[in-house]
Amino acid sequence: MSTSYEPRPEHKFTFGLWTVGNVGRDPFGEPVRPPISPVEIVHLLAEVGAYGVNLHDNDLVPIDATPAERDRIVRDFKRALEETGLKVPMATTNLFTDPVFKDGAFTSNDPAVRAYALQKTMQAMDLGVELGAETYVFWGGREGTESDATKNPVEAIKRMREALNFLCAYALDQGYALKFALEAKPNEPRGDIYLPTTGAMLGFIETLDHPEMVGVNPEVAHEQMAGLNFLHAVAQAWDAGKLFHIDLNDQNPGRYDQDFRFASHLWKQAFFLVKFLEDVGYEGPRHYDAHAYRTEDLDGVKDFARGCMRSYLILKEKARQFNEDPEIQALLAEINPPVQGIPDPGAPYTRAHAEALKAHAFDRRAIAARGLAYERLDQLVFDLLMGVR
Ligand code: GCO
Ligand code: MN
Ligand code: MN
After folding, report:
1. In angstroms, what is the span from residue 278 Cα to ligand 1's centroid?
2. Could you please report the per-residue DSSP string of 73-114?
3. Does residue 56 carry a catalytic annotation?
4. Does the annotation mark 11 as catalytic?
């Protein structure tokens, strides 16, 4: 048991270049922090104890860089990785910043945009693999509409499928051992984004040519923006064997896209998320897709990054306490009674079992009269999280 809450490489904490590198621009205001170079970010992340750094192609290589510039930038970046031991577990493509993507990339109505998006993604995959990435994220930030007069939603999904099938085939053809992770978001920057939830992505994946290569990258804020329970989305992805990556941050439901420090807002949800990831033995990176408040300077950015990891480790320790707490465990045993004196509801179908179920006399009122003590259990969770237990 460790209660030092110091991040170590085995915790697999990662940050995007765009997260600690965020300069604090928002729709109402200019940057509040000077840009930090990718090499400096690698050193900053090493200083605060992260395991790895993730990137979009253009976080590292500007979109208009010449091949010679690209090579120099990549060489310097690789040197920083070697010096610090930081890994690049995940890479992705920026298909949303440049004006060419104003109406989406893979779902754009313009075939020239769709073709350019494929070209840009193949080049970005090459870069990611060169840096050692094993997971390739697809976040379709602009793949949506403001008005449904403009795009056919079935056609849009078909275009998305064509693009992913093509890119899976490209990865296989190149011999890349990449797994794809699809990241859903309901809106922002588009009015509505296609395939808006993790559940929608899970359904879509099964329609692809290579579903075994493709999973999801759920993000806390993206489900919470839609008022959904993030843990339930993650659990469904896990159950389907599709939890390939995860984006951790925090978000007040019903607000703008906040990207707050992990566990800074909905502590209880964050606790159950960490408990889930630890209990099931999720082994992928814990990636923070968040940024410091706009009020912060460089020291504040480090406080933000350290805070994300520290909060995770504190919640992990709380999860251990939950699992070892005799009163909590006794309550859990009580509310999960064994199958006794009734036909087993989990047994597979047989005609005889169906007959037995139909014939059984249930004492409905007696069953309903039993109090479940969920109030006590939930208060114990509160006491545990507040440190009075
Ligand atoms: C957002 C998204 C992005 C993606 C990133 C990697 O809301 O802006 O979460 O940060 O995760 O582009 O795909
Ligand atoms: Mn996000
Ligand atoms: Mn994200």
Report:
1. 24
2. HHHHHHHHHHHHT-B--EEE---SSSGGGTT-STT-S-HHHH
3. yes
4. no
